[in-house]
Specification:
The protein is an alpha+beta fold and 319 residues long. It has three domains: 1-152, Orthogonal Bundle (Arc Repressor Mutant, subunit A), CATH 1.10.10; 158-234, Ferrous iron transport protein A (FeoA) (SH3 type barrels); 241-316, Ferrous iron transport protein A (FeoA) (SH3 type barrels, Roll), CATH 2.30.30.90. The chain contains eleven helices and 14 strands. A hairpin with a 4-residue loop joins β5 (195-201) and β6.
Length: 319
């Protein structure tokens, strides 16, 4: 991404309000282009939530800055517009990754906070974020993060509603907009990296196993999940339980920790010694079952259900 051209265009934007509208529009155009969709005035109006006269002003601004072209009702990014849009997308997705890995911010808030930060973050801060995170390739939803040069990781996949019955796959992306749909999907505990098996796929429903638990989605919801087919031999969560299912004085060995557990929480589990191969016992459950006490390597630890649900185990016979 040629920085000089981008910075010069940023400086042309007089107010913060104009800058936000311009960058939000560019981001929507980038998304349409990435998904190979045409972008029109109507789609831009719906996405930005502005009135038609306000959208006209935004388009005029974008054209005057040589960021877009308008032809036969279709809006397309110019090379400079694509560079600018890629910069905004990169910053947004870096912030989402940072919030997921380094804070206790709720998953449903990552996108909202990143939307605010993307407009005020300098290139220097973006590079600091990237280095701090180890130059990640994807955000928490599985969206590719453009690198400093604007290049992105390409992944082939299909939407869940197009996967055949008895097929195995791994979730590689969850669409995070609209936020209501994203909230429904995450309420099922779905996350990028999760392994699934399709049990039934009809025009009315998609029924599948996710980390060994059965889920049921309407096809319109399933279309917001992108998956990559895998061989059955790659499945590691089939026939395993989560730690919550371990009853008092039962014993199990840890198989792994779900990718849905990130950042500080995940590091805390590793500090406790919860790693593949570790033997673990349930020693106490509260009346409501939350939290529970577990014995790990001779020490008692307390875990809440939303934590124990994400620890995969294989039950052992008591000796």
């Amino acid at each position: 991404m040629p920085k000089r051209g981008i910075i010069a265009r940023i400086k042309k934007i007089k107010s913060d309000e104009d800058k936000i509208a311009v960058e939000d529009a560019l981001k929507h155009l980038y998304d349409c282009e990435f998904k190979k969709l045409d972008c029109s005035l109507n789609s831009l109006t719906g996405n930005l939530g502005l009135k038609p006269n306000q959208i006209a002003q935004v388009i005029s601004k974008l054209e005057s800055m040589s960021l877009v072209t308008l032809f036969n009702g279709k809006i397309n990014l110019t090379e400079h517009g694509r560079d600018y849009a890629t910069r905004v997308v990169r910053i947004h997705r870096l912030w989402e990754r940072y919030l997921a890995e380094n804070t206790s911010v709720s998953e449903n808030e990552w996108h909202v906070i990143a939307e605010e930060r993307e407009h005020e973050t300098t290139d220097e801060v973006a590079e600091w974020l990237s280095a701090r995170l180890g130059n990640p390739l994807v955000d928490p939803h599985g969206d590719p993060i453009p690198n400093k040069s604007g290049e992105i990781l390409s992944k082939d996949g299909v939407t869940l509603n197009n996967l055949g019955e008895e097929k195995y796959a791994r979730i590689i992306h969850i669409e995070d907009e609209p936020k209501e749909v994203y909230a429904q999907l995450t309420a099922f505990g779905l996350y990028p990296g999760m392994q699934i098996k399709i049990l039934e796929n009809t025009k009315d429903k998609v029924r599948f196993l996710a980390d060994g638990h059965e889920c049921l989605l309407a096809p319109v919801l399933a279309a917001n999940l992108t998956v990559q087919e895998i061989d059955k031999k790659e499945i590691v969560t089939e026939n395993f339980d989560n730690l919550t299912a371990l009853e008092i004085d039962e014993v199990a060995t840890v198989v792994g920790i779900s990718n849905a557990m990130r950042g500080q929480q995940r590091r805390r589990m590793l500090d406790f010694g919860i790693v593949p191969g570790t033997t673990i016992y349930t020693r106490l459950k509260s009346l409501k079952g939350d939290p529970s006490a577990y014995e790990v390597r001779g020490a008692l630890i307390a875990l809440r259900k939303n934590q124990s649900d994400l620890i995969h185990i294989k039950k052992l016979k008591a000796s």
